[in-house]
């Protein structure tokens, strides 16, 4: 029997599996093998180290009615899901009050401060250092007033050590000559980097894990079996049970369903995101560009240009509504003249999202042999390596180097 069973092989599960191997554990990764449905495959690929401020924050409330009623807005709730998602949405909005946001920033900062160093160490060990691209990100705006309108967030980022530099229209033309349209200025996000392609990073790390003797069970987990305060087995889709000694639950947006088997009820939403990936975009973008007014990100990857983003509240495993991907592709054409979107591939996948934007990382409250690692929201790619190290500390019985109380599962 393996020492640790990791359920869910997205970036969080794979990084955790490698960190556990580093402790000397024999590790089995269990994944149903639908990598391309995982958020870790289709995300925008940013190492978003300065993303300490949650989406729900002071000033968001007046924007909500327009967002909710406009299918082209960056955040949309499918009308049929409005009632079932209402409790989550209310908690999300309630988390946006000033005092709570400061608490969230204090919780996210110690994680994100470590993200780059933890990835550099992991990627170097795996011989994949070239997969982290040493180019900062740019946030583009239609006007300086848009930046000033969110000075609350920018000040919080600077105060916590994440720096940015203003780019006027001339600077923007110099760094991103292909961008035009209504964009007049930007911010150079000095600490943010990007991956060459997140799906490739996840896959190469999984191969590294296997090359060091890790094992992979390709199966869908339908439940957790517990006796007293111990999880003793996982139940697979076919009904058979596989015994476990220790368990890490890292199944992204699907984790909430499994956690319920051991009495853990977490308000975990699956916030669907979309991308349009262009192998031959016919324009050159030099940096990952977050277009604030458009609500999407342009990331130049080793496999082409990815236009990604948008948040759709539509429950777990909904049918994709690729109009959302078309909308961001059309918006991208408006700021990138000459962009060729033909031959693009569309994708939808779920961000595992807690109402306060903070992940759940910690021991299960009533089951000592279980570590929970999910709910990383819009920064799960960024926090893969860091989460892995914290998971390894917890499984090894060591005190993690940061205060873990903000990420406890029972904080709601
Ligand atoms: C459009 C979009 C853009 C994003 N951009 C960024 C970004 O730029 N930077 C960033 O840091 N983050 C970004 N994110 C967020 C990030 O992608 C996620 O937070 C992160 O990938 C979550 O990783 P995970 O391993 O927890 O989950 P996932 O990647 O979703 O992996 C979960 C895994 O669990 C497996 N699984 C689930 N249920 C079961 C089961 N019952 N049995 C067996 N296996 C199971 C799945 O097959 C999957 O492989 C973005 C997300 C989206 C949607």
Q: TL;DR?
A:
The chain has 412 residues and is α/β, with parallel strands linked by helices.
Please supply descriptive tags for the structure shown above.
412 residues; FAD-dependent oxidoreductase; D-Amino Acid Oxidase, Chain A, domain 2; six-stranded mixed β-sheet; binds flavin-adenine dinucleotide; plasmid; oxidoreductase; FAD/NAD-bd_sf; 12 helices; alpha/beta; oxidoreductase activity
As a whole number of angstroms, the C-alpha radius of gyration is 21 Å
CATH architecture of one domain: 2-Layer Sandwich
* Helix content range: 25-40%
Cα(first) to Cα(last) distance is 35 Å
Number of E strands: 21
Strand residue percentage = 25-35%
Structural class of the secondary structure composition? Answer: alpha/beta
CATH class of one domain: Alpha Beta
- Low-confidence sequence ranges: none
Mean pLDDT: 95
CATH topology of one domain: D-Amino Acid Oxidase, Chain A, domain 2
CATH superfamily of one domain: D-Amino Acid Oxidase, subunit A, domain 2
Which cofactors or ions or other ligands sit in this model?
flavin-adenine dinucleotide
Helical segment count: 12
What characterizes the major β-sheet? 9 strands, mixed
The coarse overall form would be globular
Describe this structure in words.
This is FAD-dependent oxidoreductase. The protein has 412 residues and is of the alpha/beta class. The chain has a domain at 55-82 and 131-195 and 268-353: D-Amino Acid Oxidase, Chain A, domain 2 (2-Layer Sandwich), CATH 3.30.9. It has 12 helices and 21 strands. The protein has helices spanning 11-22, 39-42, 64-69, 82-94, 98-125, 144-148, 151-159, 169-175, 198-211, 255-259, 323-335, 384-396, and strands at 4-7, 27-31, 46-47, 75-77, 132-133, 137-141, 164-167, 185-189, 193-195, 215-218, 221-227, 230-236, 241-243, 246-249, 269-278, 289-291, 296-301, 304-313, 345-353, 360-364, 367-374. The strands form 4 sheets. Strands 4, 6, 7, 8, 15, 16, 17, 18 and 19 form a 9-stranded mixed sheet that branches. It has a 6-stranded mixed sheet with strand order 10-2-1-14-21-20. Strand 16 (289-291) and strand 17 (296-301) form a beta hairpin. Helix 1 packs across helix 12 and helix 5 crosses helix 12. The radius of gyration is 21 Å and the shape is globular. Bound molecules: flavin-adenine dinucleotide. Residues 7-13, 30-32, 34-35, 38-40, 42-46, 48, 220-221, 250-254, 273, 275, 308-309, 349, 351-352, 374, 376-382 line the site of flavin-adenine dinucleotide.
